[in-house]
Amino acid sequence: xxxxxxxxxxxxxxxxxxxxxxxxxxxxxxxxxxxxxxxxxxxxxxxxxxxxxxxxxxxxxxxxxxxxxxxxxxxxxxxxxxxxxxxxxxxxxxxxxxxxxxxxxxxxxxxxxxxxxxxxxxxxxxxxxxxxxxxxxxxxxxxxxxxxxxxxxxxx
Length: 156
Prior knowledge:
By secondary structure, the protein is mainly beta.
């Protein structure tokens, strides 16, 4: 081995030959090595309140009082409703109407410029619809459309 320089990836490959996938954490990206191909899995959309990653919608700060995330398979979404925060009042966290459970956003009703923010409601056929805030609606919808098949998106 003298004179041969091995990078960390080759060292891992030599030590673990029977493992098909090897994950390497590089900042926020995950690289998976599989048969000489590299696949980069990272969030396609991410904001303070939600994230779209690998076919899943992750709603942050969803459950009360633990503030844990809710992970939804995008294939299970039946429809999506979008409203501007300037034209609608919604609960900051929890449910008031017993129809929608809202993820935590304590500024939802108190922004000085609510025109740039949107209330998004997801229906997956459960008792409660899932509600959360989105700021960059174009990026959110672009990432969602990659996985949506026949689901409708309603703007109110």
